[in-house]
Amino acid sequence: IIPLEVELPSLRISLRDYLDKDEDYRVARLAELELLDEKRIRVLNHLKVYQNRVSRGYKKCIIHQEFDVGDLVLKENQKNTVKDREKK
Where on the tree of life does the source sit, at the highest rank (predicted)? Predict the structure, then answer.
């Protein structure tokens, strides 16, 4: 059995074949693709600006501290966690 599209192409395929032969369509399509590249670059730049803004906001809340060998620090007690209580 031969598929129907082999004998009778669908409307979409017929239009695509017709438009591929049209020179104005090709020029318009290339211009559209160039605009798409420009839009991608704009979106990428916007993403970088957004990530920098979020990063700066995060870094404002962080208090940087440096510790030397021998400094006394408060250590978290990991034995008193919910997981340990559930096991008993």
Answer: Eukaryota
